[in-house]
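Severity: low
Component: inverse-folding endpoint
Summary: output formatting inconsistent between runs
Steps to reproduce: submit the following structure tokens with default settings.
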């Protein structure tokens, strides 16, 4: 997964509309920006000896290609796929072809919102799901990766 002596790489993926965080429906998503969340993830990663690589895109294909590129290179993936969560079978299939742990992350709890958000096509190929904790979820997701990679219970 990671070359000897290098920190394991965790790919953090941010899907459509997450670039608007900070001003987008703050009553649901909070006032922190995506950069703020990535900072939190990086700090949690370095505390556990892991490097975080972040990609944000509003385009499904770009995200699918990022998952492909992570194969054999990243030890784990943390993915907040935005609305792609609810319909992107292409992302589902790409994640199914990734070998390491996948942590699905949401700021809000989609299961407690509109009916169309209740189905996640990411969950069936995720190792763990963190939702509804707001920005703290970014730290929890990276901590979850560290626990999953350590193999300890
Ligand atoms: C989200 C939840 C999704 O339903 C929504 O489409 C998003 C953000 C979250 O982080 O709460 O864009 O993934």
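Observed output (run 2 of 3):
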């Amino acid at each position: 997964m990671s070359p000897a002596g290098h920190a394991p790489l965790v790919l953090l993926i941010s899907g459509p509309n997450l670039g608007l965080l900070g001003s987008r429906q703050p009553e649901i998503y909070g006032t922190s920006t995506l950069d703020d969340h990535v900072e939190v993830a990086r700090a949690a990663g370095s505390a556990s000896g892991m490097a975080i690589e972040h990609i944000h895109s509003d385009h499904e294909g770009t995200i699918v290609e990022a998952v492909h590129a992570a194969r054999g290179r990243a030890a784990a993936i943390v993915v907040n796929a935005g609305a792609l969560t609810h319909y992107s079978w292409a992302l589902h299939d790409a994640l199914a072809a990734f070998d390491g742990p996948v942590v699905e992350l949401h700021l809000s709890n989609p299961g407690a919102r509109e009916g169309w958000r209740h189905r996640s096509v990411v969950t069936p190929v995720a190792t763990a799901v963190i939702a509804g904790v707001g920005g703290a979820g970014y730290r929890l997701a990276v901590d979850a990766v560290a626990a999953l990679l350590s193999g300890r219970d």
